[in-house]
């Protein structure tokens, strides 16, 4: 055997991994999962595909494409999917819960700090700096997703239409997603290539073959459930999700803050296709403008928390639930009510994610090569670019200007900035963050920490009001 032959010989498949061993790998992934879904998926790919070789490139991308079809956070669902593939339901629960846990603990602690000390000058200055960087982060998301999704003229047209509908006409996000999915489904079914794209965050080169990995190419036995097992899975996870919601509605009534948190975030869990930033757009539209649980500035603060802590970006929803219940505590102490509200929002947001995976993953092979489904997914992603652009504009209005005014012209209604209310220091920090992200290629965490430090410096210089 020559040296050249030895160089190309496939490596031996990895040894079997126990659930206990997998636990520590999933915990490591969770602690490294900063920077939004693209960064989190890249971390998973590096560790699970390149380093551990638990799963191959094509199987990883196949799982990712399925998770991109689902409402909710695709990175957390991908972790759950791969954990389920390896160690059945227990493995999926371990992977999915660990992916959430560090961020949930961190955001809850920061929520306490926020309501107890948020008016303290140095803490307020820190969040002032965070908000400036968040604008750059969301703009980066627009560019990243747009670069992947808007490869054709119809996709760009759909993204533009989505932005116009949601920004100028206040169209509901779920309706935009439904319309985009129908357009993409029809296009794919007709064989058109109007919408095409791929999942974000994964490698573009197939460096690890499925056959050379721990999972191999074959389906595990638990990926062939009987109909009885499928129904049982659905009933268990639906009960875990909906029984607490029903109990709150019966015990407290539909107008109680806990009932509204449960129903709102349960609805969100079913309609927020398109990943974390699409979720944020929907929450900003509803929790801020309709429910009044928090202000636009506080929404930005919460997003800053989620960006600087590990785990899913939509852990910001825990902060939203916390503030909503904190401010409508009733007979409870505000901190207790806020804690319960945050935990409730987290529960009804993430339990459905496990349902989608455990119920749908065994049938994922049926979606492979389905042109209509691929077209629907790509069209949704294109529309999400417009929705996230709307989120970026919304953040810019409430970061760079102290006041906005609602303008109306027939069916057109939108927020416009009051030009005389521009905040020069916020504009300066936001501009610096944009330069750092787009020109200097600084990572998200470094940018957020830098603008936070700058906010504190401005506080000590006495220039912040």
From TrEMBL:
Keywords: Cell membrane, Membrane, Transmembrane, Transmembrane helix
Annotated transmembrane regions: 23-43, 93-115, 121-145, 157-186, 234-252, 264-284, 304-323, 335-359, 371-397, 418-438, 444-464
Gene Ontology MF term list: chromate transmembrane transporter activity
Cellular compartments annotated: Cell membrane
One CC-aspect GO term: plasma membrane
Membrane topology reported for the UniProt record: Multi-pass membrane protein
UniProt-listed InterPro entries: Chr_Tranpt_l_chain (IPR014047), Chromate_transpt (IPR003370)
Family of this protein: Belongs to the chromate ion transporter (CHR) (TC 2.A.51) family.
NCBIfam families, per database record: 2A51
Protein name: Chromate transporter
The species this protein was found in: Sphingomonas xinjiangensis
């Amino acid at each position: 055997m020559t040296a050249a032959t030895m160089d190309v010989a496939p490596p031996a498949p990895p040894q079997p991994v126990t659930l206990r061993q997998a636990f520590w790998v999933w915990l490591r992934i969770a602690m490294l999962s900063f920077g939004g879904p693209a960064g989190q998926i890249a971390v998973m790919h590096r560790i699970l595909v390149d380093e551990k070789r638990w799963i191959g490139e094509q199987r990883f991308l196949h799982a990712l494409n399925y998770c991109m079809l689902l409402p909710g956070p695709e990175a957390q669902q991908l972790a759950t999917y791969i954990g389920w593939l390896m160690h059945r339901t227990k493995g999926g629960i371990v992977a999915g819960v660990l992916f959430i846990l560090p961020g949930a603990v961190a955001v809850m602690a920061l929520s306490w700090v926020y309501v107890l000390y948020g008016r303290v000058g140095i803490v307020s200055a820190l969040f002032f700096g965070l908000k400036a960087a968040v604008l750059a982060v969301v703009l980066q998301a627009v560019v990243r997703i747009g670069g992947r999704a808007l490869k054709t003229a119809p996709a760009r047209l759909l993204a533009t239409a989505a932005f116009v509908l949601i920004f100028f006409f206040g169209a509901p996000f779920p309706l935009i997603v439904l319309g985009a999915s129908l357009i993409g489904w029809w296009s794919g079914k007709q064989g058109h290539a109007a919408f095409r794209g791929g999942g974000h965050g994964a490698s573009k080169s197939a460096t690890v073959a499925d056959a050379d990995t721990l999972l191999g190419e074959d389906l595990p036995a638990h990926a062939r459930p009987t109909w009885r097992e499928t129904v049982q899975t659905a009933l268990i996870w639906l009960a875990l999700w909906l029984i607490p919601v029903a109990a709150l509605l019966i015990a407290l009534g539909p107008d109680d803050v806990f009932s509204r948190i449960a129903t709102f975030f349960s609805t969100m869990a079913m309609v927020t296709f398109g990943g974390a930033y699409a979720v944020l757009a929907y929450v900003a539209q509803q929790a801020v403008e309709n429910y009044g649980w928090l202000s636009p500035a506080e929404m930005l603060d919460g997003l800053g928390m989620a960006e600087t802590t590990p785990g899913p970006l939509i852990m910001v929803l825990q902060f939203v639930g916390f503030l909503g219940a904190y401010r409508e505590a009733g007979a409870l102490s505000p901190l207790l009510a806020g804690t319960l509200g945050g935990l409730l929002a987290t529960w009804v947001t993430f339990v459905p994610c496990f349902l989608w995976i455990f119920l749908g993953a065994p049938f994922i092979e049926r979606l492979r090569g389905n042109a209509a489904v691929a077209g629907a997914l790509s069209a949704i992603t294109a529309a999400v670019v417009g929705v996230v652009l709307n989120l970026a504009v919304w953040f810019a209005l409430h970061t760079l200007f102290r006041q906005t005014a609602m303008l109306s012209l027939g069916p057109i209604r939108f927020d416009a900035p009051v030009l005389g209310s521009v905040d020069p220091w916020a504009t300066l920090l936001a501009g610096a963050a944009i330069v750092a992200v787009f020109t200097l290629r600084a990572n998200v965490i470094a940018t957020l920490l830098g603008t936070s430090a700058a906010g504190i410096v401005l506080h000590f210089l006495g220039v912040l009001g």
